[in-house]
Amino acid sequence: LKCDHGQPSPLVLHEPQLKEAAANLAAAKAAYALAELNLDRTRILAPFNCRIRSESVNLGKVLKSGDTVGVLADTDLAEIVVPLSLGELGWLQVPLAGSQEVGSSAVARLALADGSFAWPGRVVRSLGEVDQASRLARVVVAVANPYGPEHAMGLATGLFVKVELAGKTIPRVVAIPHGALRDESSVWVMDSADRLRIKPVSVIRKSRDYIYVNGGLAAGERIVLTSLAGAADGMLLRLATVVETKP
Q1: Using CB atoms within 10 A as the burial measure, which of 154, 169, 233, 239 is most buried?
Q2: What is the per-residue pLDDT across 78-87, written as a single tens digit (0 to 9) for each?
Q3: CA–CA distance, 104 with 88 (Å, rounded to integer)
Q4: What is the pLDDT of residues 210-227, one digit of tens each?
């Protein structure tokens, strides 16, 4: 067939068939791209290095947006929540949110039957609240690369560890027994002439075993632990006789 001007008819040139074939090809390419996208979506990639803590899917399960497929644990960083009294919190450097401050250093320790393990870390933030029941504040210690080859054991999620925190450094601090502090502000010492000297001190911190003071004591001074009636500065003292006994 030919048109009036001598040109072949579109039917002769198979233009409808070519258009249909082109449309089918475009649809097939779109279906192929969608199939590749759907296939790619069957692989779930975490945006960070991690370990799988739990799974909640099975082979063949149909998922929709928002479904939970598992729980992951970051392996680049582990965080330990440490409860502290308000008095202890004041001795630490705790960075504020958004600041460039460096927090106090810390070491997480774990003792097991087959050895002891340690992971260095640092205080990175406070949770910003005080527990209503225990009246304790909580800070977060971050341990970098807790599963790294430099550690003999990985810091697994759920472990109970002992955390040592490095507090602020104060010069010329002396640790004395609790019984050595008098009236919460002084210490009795025996001078070189065996006379009582009452020295004022400042209490820095109290622990279960010691009281930490500064301001009045020098290295090597003899602290009086015995209670004395009518004690006065300058009174003569004598050392108690030490008697060695055999069992």
Answers
A1: 154
A2: 999 999 998 8
A3: 12
A4: 999 988 888 888 899 888
Which two tokens mark 20? Answer: 């249909």
Judge contact between 188 and 198, C-beta under 8 A.
yes
Q: Which of 49, 43, 44 is nearest to 73 (CA)?
A: 49
Q: Quote helix, strand, coil % in the chain, to nearest 5.
A: 15, 35, 50
Going by C-alpha positions, the residue among 181, 176, 173 that lies closest to residue 204 is 173
DSSP 2: B
Compute CA distances 168 → 91, 92, 102, 137, 165, whole Å: 6, 6, 13, 18, 10
**What burial letters (b/e) apply to 63-73, b meaning 16+ CB within 10 Å?**
eeeeeeeeebe
Q: Kindly report, residue by residue over 152-175, the tens digit of the pLDDT.
A: 788 888 889 999 999 888 888 889
Please count the CA atoms within 13 angstroms of the CA of 109 that sit on its side-chain side: 9
CA angle 171, 83, 111 (to 5 degrees): 85
Residue 223 CB coordination number (10 Å): 16
Classified as helix, coil or strand, 178 is: helix
State the Cα–Cα distance between residues 193 and 93, nearest whole angstrom: 44
Q: How many residues does the chain have?
A: 247
What is the helix (H) or strand (E) element at residue 119, kind and residue range? strand 115-130
